[in-house]
Amino acid sequence: MENFFTRYRNAGILVLLLFAQVVGLAVQVRRTSESGSTSLIRFWVVSAITPLEKALVNTNQGVRNVWRNYFYLRGVRRENRELKEQIERLRIEQVRLSEDAAQARRLQALLGFKEQYIAQTVAAQVIGSSGSDQSHVVYIDKGSNDGIKPDMAVITPDGIVGKVLRVVHSSAQVLLINDPSSGVGAILQSSRLQGILQGTAAGEVMLRYVMSDEKVAPGDQVLTSGGDRIFPKGLPVGSVEQTNPGSDLFLNIRVKPAADLSRLEEVLVVSKVVENTPSTAEPSAPLRAADILAERLPSVPPKPATVPATGTAASPTTATKPSAATSNGATGANNAGMRPSAPAAVPSQARAAGAMSGEAAPDNAAKKPAGKPAATAPAVGTVSVTRGAATKPAAVKPVASKPAASGDATKPKAIDSAGQPANPATQPSPGEEGPR
Amino acid sequence: MTDMPLVRTSREEIEVYRFGPIISVLIPLLALVTQAFVPVKVRSFAIFDLPLLVTIFFAVARRSQMAGMLTGAVIGLVQDALTHQAIGLYGVAKTVVGYGASSLGVRIDVENPGTRLLVTSGFYLVHQAVYFLVARNVLGIAVEWLWVRTLLAAVLNGLVATVLFGLLDRFKHST
């Protein structure tokens, strides 16, 4: 008997070791959330490995920066010239798009849409991966110390990347969209067909659950639908690469991700998404006389507002949103066809009004420093309100059936030319009628 | 040493090597960090499995089944912790490989490059097979067995092993 145990001791230990690990796996499968022991192992390993990876990334980046910034400057002048030309083109395009966006917002407001937009992001650097083909995850150099939490969306300027899965103090694990266990609500831009984006074992991205009788062409753009409650609606996902009829009722749609998932360096973690209902229009509200006059009279040149900044800088996405402080439904709807003669002058004044009245709307545009060039926040619906106030002749008393109350920034407010709220005593009383 | 009967065809075949404690920790750690870091820059690098190669190297050189399977288990569990999947998948696979490699190490000559290529390629296939079986049957993960890719990866890992083992040979000491 003793001889038997001696002879098969190592094999017995192997069996015990395997049995222990398989039992451990089974326990992990049964539990929905991660148990303390496994999360502790992950915590130790990640805490030990990620500092080394960070050091490697920093060293690599330092050497590359020195090379690129001080030695390898070939073609920089040409690139600079091309970029300037591109800026000019984009400026022109921005003007056109901002008007389209304003119109879309008005329509959304009429339909009572709830829109989501990215209010805050944290830039992070990719420092490592799982190192396995079976697990498409990467590690970033920001963790709970930087406000990162599980289930936050991770994006690049090109498109979505994944979501935060686990977080330790100074790093976080991000599950990429090409992992088989990943799932993202997606919509085809042209046909508005909805599906679920999933990864495959080979690292491809597939759009599932689109019926086989639908027509989907290669090249169609895929956007996030917002249905997963992780990614805000409308973020670029990629484009359709190939479409095949599936074995069941659905199409097999292969999507080429917009973000290059195999070469991720810097990413943005969406740390704050704000859901907002655009101001609803009030078609029955009376038109202000000052607005009509402002349309006929030459506009007053803009004066820089002197209101101190009340918050952090807004992301470019939020800059195009209309401020709640300025979005008067009545004027927004009534002046839909009006073109602002001096759009740059208005938003800063309007923001000042919102900030001074204690407005706590979740719109970062209202928090932007007043000295910021106002051209970045075009809002057609905004212009008519504030410009009317800014150009209001002293003798003219506007029609104001709803006088602006303190803190109610969604109602029209009288603002003087310096962007300060007018004296409440001079506000028109309800029912008081001005010249038409 | 081991309880397995030794087949002695030359003196080198039964040579048992040992490694200093720093090397025993540093080399697997370096393999894990490299495996986690390089695929960020070069995604196709993930086809290699440096922790597996290090497991095979230590197991074959030490020629101890106990040391082989413990090395494999520890390296595998650490590798598991870096993925998002359950901890134990790589642990089980590398434990089996560690045990198998150390058992084989006492039977055949594993010092020449040709043998190393074949042994490493073979153990890569064993590793993938065990991983596949456990992932599919214990965890219910829908993993795909891709023959062409797996065979290609086995050969590539074998080629890398011949170079890597040559470098790591410098750190081993005869007992």
What does it look like?
- Chain A is of the alpha+beta class.
- Chain A folds into two domains: 115-274, Beta Barrel (Thrombin, subunit H), CATH 2.40.10; 278-426, no CATH class.
- Chain A is built from nine helices and twelve strands.
- In chain A, the strands form two sheets. Chain A has a six-stranded antiparallel barrel. Chain A has a six-stranded antiparallel barrel with strand order 6-7-8-11-10-9.
- In chain A, strand 3 and strand 4 form a beta hairpin.
- In chain A, helix 5 (289-296) crosses helix 9 and helix 8 crosses helix 9.
- The longest helix of chain A has 36 residues, at 36-71.
- Chain A is globular and about 105 Å long.
- Mean pLDDT of chain A is 70; it is low at 307-436.
- By secondary structure, chain B is mainly alpha-helical.
- Chain B has one domain (16-174).
- Chain B is 66% helix and 2% strand.
- Chain B has six helices and two strands.
- Chain B has helices at residues 21-41, 50-62, 65-82, 89-105, 113-137, 147-168, and strands at residues 17-18, 173-174.
- In chain B, strands 1-2 form a two-stranded antiparallel ribbon.
- The longest helix of chain B is centred in the last third of the chain and has 25 residues, at 113-137.
- The termini of chain B are close together.
- The model of chain B is unreliable at 1-9 (pLDDT under 50).
Poorly predicted runs of chain A = 307-436
Radius of gyration of chain B: 16 Å
The level of helicity of chain A is 25-40%
Major sheet characteristics of chain A = 6 strands, antiparallel, barrel
CATH architecture group name of the largest domain in chain A = Beta Barrel
Estimate the mean pLDDT confidence of chain A: 70
Look at the helices and sheets of chain B and give the structural class. mainly alpha
The N- and C-terminal alpha carbons of chain B lie at a distance of 11 Å
Find the CATH topology of the largest domain in chain A.
Thrombin, subunit H
Count of extended strands of chain A:
12
Main sheet makeup of chain B: 2 strands, antiparallel
- Roughly what fraction of the amino acids of chain A lie in strands? 15-25%
Q: Into how many domains do the coordinates of chain A divide? A: 2
Per DSSP, the total helix count of chain B is: 6
Globular, elongated, flat, extended or rod-shaped: what is the shape of chain B? globular
The radius of gyration computed from the alpha-carbon positions of chain A, rounded to a whole number of angstroms, is: 28 Å
| SSE order of chain A, one letter for each helix or strand | HHHHEEEEEEEEEEEEHHHHH
Q: Which percent band covers the strand fraction of chain B?
A: under 5%
Q: What is the number of independent domains of chain B?
A: 1
How large is the count of helical segments of chain A?
9
> In the CATH hierarchy, what is the class of the largest domain in chain A?
Mainly Beta
